[in-house]
Specification:
Elements lengths: L1 E2 L4 H14 L19 H11 L3 E4 L7 H6 L1 H21 L4 E5 L28 H21 L3 E6 L1 E3 L12 H15 L3 E4 L5 E2 L1 E3 H14 L6 E3 L7 E2 H11 L6 E4 L14 H6 L8 H14 L7
Parallel strand pairs: 1-2, 2-3, 3-4, 4-9, 5-8, 6-11
Antiparallel strand pairs: 7-10
Helix pairs in contact: 1-7, 2-4, 4-5, 6-8, 6-10, 8-10
Bound molecules: NADPH dihydro-nicotinamide-adenine-dinucleotide phosphate.
Length: 311
């Protein structure tokens, strides 16, 4: 059972499983908020009683951009705490064999050294802008270990870096960097205006294509049995600048107009490199989709689904 099955990662898991990823004896269920509000214990119990899942991939979360995180720390903390507590406790009660939940690199300590790895999650306070979200997510890791110690549960978590792909939220104001750039470039091409990138374009990021993340998440569910988190990310050498990403978006969109960097806008953190050594020790040869290919597929999906996608 996949919670948050209608979102960016959930849709990618569904496409992977319905493509080549399913095993013969499996049947998959994808939840969205219409099926029940996971903040609500009674709704969550009903879902577990109805489907009796043996394995749960837990994606559902209250997620948002910087502004929303700063303005609603109480809601980001409480709603995620409620959702995560309901999913973990129902997974224990209904004897789920494996629970895999999602953390994020943005919940790591604000003041740290790079690259960051799985052992550093609790080594200092998160950035004040998203502390509600960050502490709620960090407690998933604490509770995974507690459930293992006290009840022998097989619960673990995944730390993805920046995710992009089809079915993303392409909002320019509230979305993440790649979907925002894709939407802006689409409008610049349509309106014959410059493609303006916020900031200098120099910050570095690791991006993981949603379909790669989907495949690796299903692998974690089947084969990674340890309560400590595992980072799912491209290698450190694959870190790219926002400028490179913008140029790849322009190429994929066949945009040949002017590209402008608006340096009056903030750049954010220069880099937040994550270490994927644990993943590489278990899956040394996994080949990630190249950024130009992933961006081309995301751009093609956005253009084909412009009228109906989240934006
Ligand atoms: P999306 O925002 O695309 O999707 C969120 C999903 O959660 C939707 O299916 C939504 O259902 C569901 N949901 C939200 N609130 C509730 C609720 N109260 N009850 C039931 N369902 C709910 O998320 P992503 O796919 O981007 O993210 C998946 C996970 O990965 C999250 O845990 C997130 O924190 C984490 N993550 C994401 C990153 C990214 O770059 N996107 C980076 C790092 C971590 P509905 O569609 O019906 O509203």
């Amino acid at each position: 059972m996949v919670t948050g099955g209608s979102g960016l990662v959930g849709a990618a898991i569904r496409e992977y499983v319905e493509g080549t990823g399913a095993l013969e004896n499996e049947s998959w269920i994808y939840l969205n908020s219409k099926e029940g509000d996971l903040r609500n214990r009674a709704d969550t119990e009903k879902i577990f009683a109805k489907y009796q899942p043996t394995h749960v991939i837990h994606l559902a979360a209250k997620v948002g951009g910087l502004f929303a995180n700063m303005a609603q720390k109480v809601e980001f903390f409480r709603e995620n705490i409620l959702i995560n507590d309901n999913i973990m406790e129902c997974s224990r009660i209904y004897k789920v064999e494996k629970l895999v939940s999602f953390l994020s690199t943005c919940i790591f300590p604000d003041k740290t050294t790079y690259p960051i790895d799985e052992t550093m999650l609790h080594d200092g306070p998160p950035h004040p802008s998203n502390e509600g979200y960050a502490y709620a997510k960090r407690l998933i890791d604490t509770m995974n270990r507690a459930y293992a110690e006290e009840y022998g549960c097989n619960f673990t978590s995944i730390i993805p870096t920046n995710i992009y792909g089809p079915h993303d939220n392409f909002s320019i104001q509230n979305g993440h960097v790649i979907p925002g750039l894709i939407h802006k470039c689409y409008l610049a091409k349509k309106d014959n205006t410059p493609f303006t990138i916020w900031g200098s374009g120099t910050p570095l990021r690791q991006f993981v294509y949603s379909r790669d993340l989907a495949e690796l998440t299903v692998w974690v569910m089947r084969e990674y049995h340890d309560p400590t988190p595992i980072t799912l990310s491209v290698d450190e050498e694959e870190e790219v600048s926002i400028k490179d990403v913008a140029l790849a978006v322009a190429k994929a969109m066949q945009f040949d107009g002017q590209i402008v960097f608006d340096t009056s806008k903030a750049d954010g953190q220069f880099k937040k490199t994550a270490c994927n050594k644990k993943l590489r020790s278990l899956k040394a040869d996994y080949e990630f989709t190249s950024m130009p290919d992933g961006i081309q597929q995301s751009v093609d999906w956005f253009v084909a689904n412009y009228d109906s996608c989240r934006k």
